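#help-structures
NK: newbie question, is this the right format to request a structure? protein is Enoyl reductase (ER) domain-containing protein
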Amino acid sequence: MSTPIRKALISSFGDPSHIEIVDSQIEPPPANHVQIKTIYAGMGGGDFLMREGLYPNQKKAPLTPGYNLVGRVHVNGPGSTKFKVGDMVACLTVYDADAELCNCPEKYLVPVPKGVDLKQAVAVVLDWTTAYGMVYRTTQVTKGQKVFIHGLSGSVGYALLTLCKHEGAEIYGTASPSKHDELRKDGVTPFSYKNKDWIQAMKDVGGVEACYDPLGFESWDESWQIINPKGGKLVGYGGNQGVLNGEVDNRSVYPYIAKLVAKGLVPFCPKSTSFYYIDRDQKTFIPELEALYSMLSAGKIQVPIKKVWTLDQIPEAHRERNNIPGIGSMVVKINDDLEA
């Protein structure tokens, strides 16, 4: 028997008027799935790109966004025995987290440690696992290295900042000028992206050993210029230039990814490149999420939350995405945790 729910719906692709909150139904969880009562869902660039129809390989409309969630097990489907009703779990859902209930494959569920702040716990699922993989696997940052992070004040950018700082790196990056003073308190050197002064400034210090660039397109060519000519890596991810600038950019990012990767294949060139992405089927995903939860539980990291929306406010979140003050991640509160 289906259950009535409320959820976000992207009925067709386009501006924020194309997302609404609707009454709907959810079927019982199928075999090897678990129905989760969503408490918090993440809110980030992937959701905005999906609404515009620009996220790589996304579903066709209509669809319900919501890339990740934390919530309590509501119903176990046939064959699902790993979790008990009431257990707190996290999931990288890709879709459907912006709903009161969500059916998730059991194999993707990760227990959320008791006592952690659930807003921080949901931000870790996507934003911080993305950063973790880049810092500890792709670039293997070590003490004393110089790193450059585009979007220092954003959800992934601040996670990169925190993890690189944890390893003793010297940190530079771009951010809106209004956030520079706050970022300097974290011991980083911020620049404005638009005036391009950061390019010469980084050349003057000999370049960086790692640069993380979510903008894509022409920005990857610019970031390549600041890599240490004796050896360093440019890591592209996202391709969110339009989202971060409040514009719609309908260009395909794939030719630019190919160009990015090709830069790193030139023989005898000490500089290298990589395009990074998150996939819940990667064998590293769950262990890295568990490692981050251990760090969160131990107080080794703290995830700043700059805005908490409600389910009804999701359309407003899409309208105001670039006008939210503060640093860190945005999340959506879907249900109260009545079992807490």
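mod (FA): yep, format's fine, and the tokens are attached above. Residues 173 and 286 are 29 Å apart (CA to CA).
NK: thank you!
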